[in-house]
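Internal ticket #5521
Category: modeling
Description: The requester needs a full-assembly model to guide mutagenesis choices. All entity lines are attached below as received. Residue total reported by intake: 576.
Assigned to: D.W.
Attached entities:
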Amino acid sequence: MNQIRIPQGMRDLISEECEKKEALKKRIENVFSSYGYRPLKTPAIEYLETFTNAYVDVKDEEMYKFFDQEGKTLALRTDMTVPIARMCASKFTNAKPPFRFRYCSNVFKVRHTFAGQRSEVTDCGIELIGCDSQSDLEILAAALDTMQVIGVKDYELEIGNSEFFRSACTAVQLKADQIKTLASYIDRKSLVELQEYLQTLNLAEGAVSFFEELPMLGGREEVLRKAEEIAFNDALKVEVKTLQDLFQNLKALGYEDHISFDFGKVPHLDYYTGIIFEGYVGNVGSSVLSGGRYDSLLKKFGRDLPACGFSVKLDALLDILPEERKSITQVLYPRGKEVEALIKAKQLQKNGAVELVEAAVKEVEVKA
Amino acid sequence: MSLSIALTKGRLENKVGGMLEKSGYGIASLQDKGRSLVFHDSKKDIQYFLAKPNDVITYVEHGVADVGIVGKDTLMEGGKDYYELLDLNTGICKFILAGMPNNNPLEKVGHIKIGTKYPNVTSAYFHAKGMEPEIIKIDGSVELAPVLGLCDGIVDIMETGTTLKENGLVVFDDVCRISARVIVNKVSFKLKRKEINALVQDLEKARD
């Protein structure tokens, strides 16, 4: 039975889908190349340790794992950022930063059975390694240009700042497990649980209303002003200022129509250290682009460099993109005239794809 | 932009329908529906459809529905990839731990067996108490399991307690309160922020 089935979460792509995917990949990679990013490849299989080293909370059940000849645990890569951080820290030990890397590779995650999700997706992205937050503007501009070449009019890049939440937690002296619980409620905008949980923490009134408002602190430019109002100390005001400055610069570059903010964006706190952002397009139920600053990741692999990057999950977009129309010229020929047919075909191939078709004709014919 | 709302079929459908009507939504077609499953609001640019509780979550997670209205019991047992914006304070009941009198699983020494339709809720509840029972998944009439001796107790939803009483079971502990919640697809919340906020505010008013 298994010979005609494919494992849960895997997909076959037919030619039309491959053509769409290739065209999209090309458009995106053109943007990456134009910003000076150069390609990299890493192995699909890494040691499990590489990922457990990088993330504090590795979701073990989401990884495809197996053993090598020596009994060491291997894993299919779940993202490209960690392998690139590992590669950069170990293979570019003496090279002078910054490094601009781009990649387009398949990544793997075990998904719930029958949930309609893909376990293998193509991740197409960039990493800018060795530049601090001063380069955030460049990364965001590249992300916005990438969103634009996807080819959907209705898109939005939503920017958050993980330091805003972290700094507030430090100011009110929350413990690590409390921060984790609070972050999960805020990130999922579970307003009911959030309010209940805040009651148990015995915080000052200003801090309670700050955390209560955080999940809904999203929207266009006006959110920056609201964030400034609820920022209860100088450190928080500085974090708002960072985003205000970024917005002014993005506005100067003409991007303001596609930008929104969400101060309640607090995912993977052990990983992101500054701006975080996600791209959305109409009619796709999950984010299609995601990224952020991760200044403390490379240190874990032995070279302390700041970094920022993002990636696009190509597969999520295939359903909403139109088919690539490709005309193929046909060369019709009768049996026995294969050589003439190929001579004709080779001449025409300079202008585009040509398909040989054996037909009931007397001489070689061209059909556009 | 138009909104699509997935409503949980059955008991919740009427209660939430009432709240929407009170807020000035045109849901006459929902109340007089026959067998159709998709309805259009006669006053606003909204499409409603009816689904089983678990499917409401699935539709919202995939973004096929922008908004879903579903009980906390289903949310606690299922996926987490959505925003949960509002407690509608309707469809109220609770998760309880029950069993045969004089056989409280919380006081038992040794291996404990718990029957339930909600293995994740049960596991989280006992885990918080530092206990690790064996969980047996049962699909219907959970009350039967301890009576027949399949397990030491059950974790289930209780509304009035009549079914428990009629089967000779007693409640040992309240696990948590349950009510209807409004969940929203993460991308819809960004791209249809205005429409969704208006809906949430209307429902909030109808609730209070």
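Resolution: model delivered.
Comment from assignee: The longest helix of chain A spans residues 15-34.
Ticket closed.
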